[in-house]
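ok so i was messing around last nite and threw this chain in just to see what happens. nothing serious, just curious
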Amino acid sequence: MSKKLIGIIIVIICIVIGCILYFVLSNRTSENSSSNNTDNTNENNENQISETALGDNILVVYFSAQNHTEAVAEKIASNLDADIFEIIPVDEYTSEDLDWTDDNSRVSREHEDESLRDVELQSTEVSNWDSYDTVLIGYPIWWGIAAWPVDSFVKANDFNGKTVIPFCTSSSSGIGESGELLANEANGGNWLEGYRFNSNPSDSDIDTWTDSLK
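result:
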């Protein structure tokens, strides 16, 4: 075989190898680019979900019998730069009313007789209610459910188009089905899973939860 023919064969082999390497490298670059785009898209979607979960206008609504829920609600509102509304019964609860160990106390009688739980409130109307995208509702736990003055507020308002996030304070009980029960009584709304704080949570505990909502 002549040297000229051998040289031509070597050139052809080099060209073939070069083409193969070019296509392999091109495909890897394309795959990496596609993967990066997918990761960025997923990250953007996660950010969008996080941002839209709370919305732009946030309201914290709460009922507090012994100031525990009030303290938590005020801290949450401060962390989220939210407005705040207190649920206040016309006939406010006294310390004697709240003595659940006394069978004749107000809360004990209301617990035993559901017809007594229709608590009249000083007001159920929130200024600019329609403007709020997200409503956080706080309450103490009474006998495993939300304190019933909250029911009166929930029944009186239209939650359609709003994200609703319950939170509660309790010395021992969990949040249980309190959020679901309120959702069943509400007029619409996208009710999310709630959160339970102890009666005297630290600021860092509250901060951790509100940070998870942002």
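not much to say yet. The radius of gyration is 30 Å.
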